[in-house]
């Protein structure tokens, strides 16, 4: 056992003695009331299925960089178990048996050392009412920390301060406790979510993920554009302008290994010298971005984590597959804590159709004038979102690339030809 | 980190003596600045305080023998006026001013690369016609990579022809009407430059090697951004950055990129409409208003660029009554007119308070955990309701007098939320949504 490995395991052993792994002592609770309003708010024709309940854990873990290096992370875990790429946190319907009880026991114990990177994707539908419970499961590798966590639903319109997840204006959730956030999803679009506690640290450490809301227009009859019917849309657009066949959320992240190591080894944190050398899409550096293997192990599997095998914590490939003629929607967001990134699609032009969770029309109004534009590049700083559609009509079958134009970001630290890049395979 | 955030804030706020935040009127309905057509600037050295308590040498502009200030005075002028700025240079190096977006002419001084310069002890005069409304930047035109870092930057606001302070607009067009306005002049600073200048070692500065250590809004770092204008202990940093509105009010945000790097400014609470860029309305043509405005929740402010956005917050469609009204309160709402246009007919909002009618008396769908399970912000009233207040654990809360909702407006490149390696700080402030009836000067 190397010295470093031993250092890592020491606090773990200490914590094992204290609480025992996997059987969290804390009683986690959620609020998941049944939908009894008698109104069909999500437009699927069913009145009593609009409440959606989601649970996530907030804690720590490890992520594997493209060059094989393991970095200590803070992150969110899917409370129900392993993290698979598609619609990871679609949520569950309430249990009618819970009617009348505000709090019910959480359905799964907290995943110790189970942080996912990026956080489990949140995918909902306009008109749903979301009860999102965050369980703060604590930091196994840093038992000296007693950090609270929050969920900040970045871009939620007209949010009340109590559900904004900003510890500096309302509340944050202590270790061993749970809080249920409530969101009435009246606006579709591309959002993101992250912990806002000590944001520079908790976000650099990885507490962030994809979040998008399908428009209610998806419920309607298909809209034909250029002879082709579409039934999935980025936004309510009236005329099908944002219709797509294939969708991929593409979240920009970047890690500074010095900072992660400082956090792991209980050193003072270097904020002003923060320098990210692991640029990523969806929590992976190329070529891991195009590895479609889904995690086989439970992200909380202590043996695998300590043996540092596999990318169990990173269940989100960014490989895009389409058939020529498809329209591909990329929901591009950035949660880098350090810098702006330019993302280019050099071969297949981008049509910008959305921005900041609103359609690219006057004032974000579906009835406004089209302000769509064609480009090959978009530039995003932290907290920005751009929706682009790639029309693959006439594109020859083959492999195409989407990547950061900042060329120093095409590397996994010292290893070149990696970093913030993924592939589009046109069949 | 080891301490709960509320403790970090408390520590910083107490250091800053922030109890003054209790005093209403810490934010202005309009941007603070100086008006007129002739401005007599003196460039000189002085010092600023940073959010974590450091002191840095700056170059700044002063007016009428006052201390130098960071940023320079915000010049608020009228469209069509001819503006004259006389610059007296009391710095040990030559300096000048340029006015991007304006056709300035210079007289006096000596020829520099970008404009006429004033040598140490010298005087140069600039004038330009403020021919277009909007938000602009002025800055040093002499060795700007150093002198802007040292503080020689400022904002110009040009009011449109026919400006009515009682019914203000940014561009004279109804689509640019607003109730309040706020300046977000964004700067960043590599403090090693300031230190080397202070110790007479300017020759060692490598201007190609810039690593910001401080980030500012209107010349202050968080949490000093929250303090009132003109607090005595920040004599060279007179401008605050703490906008306040009521539900339904429109606030015009004037972003100025006086920085070296680009900074993405995120507005918690809601999207804004981006109506203008570099002093030009986003419009397809005369009379069409801001018809090219897009909606967004983060504005990247690029160096040298300015932007204007209009933000509003109503709390609509939360699906619960944000005032906590119940049937027992026996409050009847009135919605007979469109609050924005004044036209007859309902718009979904109470005509007086902007309460969202459909959510009236709906209970909050979840209960909050017990107080032992939460860490509280000093800006939390203790109640999830707007205008509410409640019991908080001893030592918690206390900075939110009216039960307002606080939304952080901040750089989302989160490393910029620090002051020379100390979190929290940097490019952050709050928007406060105050309950109806709370006076905002
Ligand atoms: Ca329903
Ligand atoms: Ca339904
Ligand atoms: Ca933006
Ligand atoms: Ca009304
Ligand atoms: Cu956190
Ligand atoms: Cu955010």
Short description:
Chain A contains 4 helices and 27 strands. Chain A has 427 residues and is mostly beta strands. Chain A starts with a helix and ends with a strand.
Q: What report would you give on this structure?
A:
The complex is a heterodimer of chains A (427) and B (441). Chain A has 427 residues and is mainly beta. Chain A has four helices and 27 strands. In chain A, a hairpin with a 2-residue loop joins β12 (223-225) and β13. Chain A starts with a helix and ends with a strand. Chain B is mainly β. In chain B, β2 and β3 (55-63) form a beta hairpin. The chains are: A mainly beta (427), B mainly beta (441). β8 of chain A pairs antiparallel with β23 (374-376) of chain B. The site of one copper (II) ion has 4 residues of chain A, from β7.
List keywords for this structure.
heterodimer; A: 427 residues; mainly beta; Immunoglobulin-like; seven-stranded mixed β-sheet; 27 strands; B: 441 residues; five-stranded mixed β-sheet; 3 helices; 5% helix; disordered N terminus; binds calcium ion; binds copper (II) ion
């Amino acid at each position: 056992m190397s010295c470093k490995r031993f250092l890592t395991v020491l606090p773990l052993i200490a914590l094992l003695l204290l609480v025992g792994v996997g059987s969290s002592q804390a009683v986690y609770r959620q609020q998941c009331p049944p939908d009894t309003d008698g109104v069909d708010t999500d437009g699927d024709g069913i009145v009593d299925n609009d409440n959606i309940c989601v649970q996530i854990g907030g804690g720590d873990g490890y992520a594997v960089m493209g060059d094989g290096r393991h970095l200590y992370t803070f992150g969110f875990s899917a409370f129900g178990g392993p993290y698979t790429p598609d619609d990871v946190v679609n949520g569950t319907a309430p249990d009618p048996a819970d009617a009348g009880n505000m709090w019910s026991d959480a359905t799964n114990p907290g995943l110790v050392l189970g942080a996912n990177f990026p956080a489990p994707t949140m995918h909902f539908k306009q008109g749903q009412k979301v009860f999102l419970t965050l369980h703060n499961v604590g930091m196994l590798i840093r038992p000296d920390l007693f950090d609270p966590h929050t969920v900040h639903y970045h871009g939620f319109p007209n949010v009340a301060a109590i559900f904004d997840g900003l510890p500096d204006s309302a509340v944050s959730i202590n270790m061993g406790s749970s809080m249920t956030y409530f969101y009435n999803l009246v606006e579709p679009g591309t959002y993101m979510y992250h912990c806002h506690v000590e944001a520079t640290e908790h976000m650099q450490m990885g507490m962030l993920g994809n979040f998008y809301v399908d428009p209610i227009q998806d419920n309607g009859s298909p809209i034909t554009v250029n002879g082709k019917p579409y039934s999935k849309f980025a936004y309510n657009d009236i005329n099908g302008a944002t219709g797509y066949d294939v969708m991929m959320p593409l979240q920009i992240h970047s890690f500074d290994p010095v900072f992660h190591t400082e956090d792991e080894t209980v050193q003072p944190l270097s904020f002003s010298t923060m320098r990210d050398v692991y640029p990523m899409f969806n929590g992976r550096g190329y070529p891991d971005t195009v590895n479609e293997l889904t995690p086989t192990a439970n992200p909380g599997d202590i043996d695998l984590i300590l043996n540092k095998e596999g990318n169990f914590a990173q269940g989100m490939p960014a490989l895009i597959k389409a058939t020529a003629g498809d329209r591909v929607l990329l929901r591009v967001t950035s949660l880098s804590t350090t810098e702006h990134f330019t993302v280019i699609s050099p071969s297949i032009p981008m049509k910008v159709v959305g921005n900041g969770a609103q359609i690219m029309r006057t004032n974000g109004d579906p009835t406004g004038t089209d302000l769509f534009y064609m480009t090959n590049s978009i530039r995003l700083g932290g907290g920005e979102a751009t929706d682009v559609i790639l029309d693959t009509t006439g594109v020859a079958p083959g492999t195409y690339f989407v990547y950061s134009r900042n060329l120093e970001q095409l590397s996994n630290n010292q290893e070149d030809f990696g970093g913030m890049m993924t592939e589009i395979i046109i069949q | 980190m080891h301490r709960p955030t509320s403790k970090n804030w408390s520590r910083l706020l107490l250091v800053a003596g922030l109890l003054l935040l209790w005093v209403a009127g810490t934010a202005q309905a309009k941007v603070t600045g100086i008006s007129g057509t002739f401005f007599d600037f003196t460039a000189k050295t002085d010092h600023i305080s940073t959010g974590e308590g450091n002191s840095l040498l700056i170059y700044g502009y002063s007016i009428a023998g006052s201390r130098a200030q960071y940023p320079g005075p915000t010049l608020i002028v009228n469209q069509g006026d001819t503006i004259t700025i006389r610059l007296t240079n009391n710095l040990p190096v030559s300096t000048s001013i340029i006015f991007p977006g304006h056709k300035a002419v210079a007289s006096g001084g000596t020829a520099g690369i970008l404009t006429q310069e004033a040598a140490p002890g010298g005087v140069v005069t600039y004038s330009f016609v403020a021919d277009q409304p909007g938000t602009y930047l002025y800055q040093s035109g002499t060795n700007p990579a150093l002198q802007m870092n040292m503080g020689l930057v400022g904002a110009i606001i040009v009011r449109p022809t026919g400006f009515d302070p009682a019914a203000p607009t940014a561009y004279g067009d109804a689509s640019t009407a607003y109730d309040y306005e706020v300046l977000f002049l964004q700067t960043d600073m590599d403090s090693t430059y300031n230190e080397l200048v202070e110790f007479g070692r300017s020759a060692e500065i490598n201007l190609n090697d810039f690593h910001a250590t401080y980030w500012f809004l209107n010349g202050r770092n968080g949490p000093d951004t929250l303090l009132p204008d003109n607090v005595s202990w920040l004599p060279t940093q007179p401008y605050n950055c703490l906008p306040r509105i009521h539900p339904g009010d429109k606030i015009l945000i004037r972003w100025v990129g006086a920085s070296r790097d680009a900074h993405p400014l995120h507005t918690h609470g809601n999207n804004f409409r981006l109506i203008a860029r570099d002093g030009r309305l986003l419009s397809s043509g005369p009379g069409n208003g801001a018809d090219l405005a897009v909606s967004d929740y983060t504005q990247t402010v690029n160096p040298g660029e300015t932007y204007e956005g209009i933000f509003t917050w109503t709390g609509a469609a939360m699906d619960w009554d944000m005032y906590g009204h119940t049937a027992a309160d026996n409050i009847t709402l009135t919605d007979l007119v469109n609050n924005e246009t004044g036209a007859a007919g309902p718009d979904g909002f109470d005509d007086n308070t902007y309460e969202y009618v459909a959510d009236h008396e709906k209970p909050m769908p979840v209960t909050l955990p017990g107080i032992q399970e939460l860490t509280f912000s000093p800006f939390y009233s203790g109640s999830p309701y707007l205008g509410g207040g409640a019991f908080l654990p001893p030592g918690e809360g206390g900075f939110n007098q009216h039960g307002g909702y606080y939304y952080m407006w901040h750089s989302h490149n989160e490393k910029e939320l620090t002051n020379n390696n100390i979190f929290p700080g940097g490019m952050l402030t709050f928007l406060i949504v105050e309950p109806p009836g709370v006076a905002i000067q």
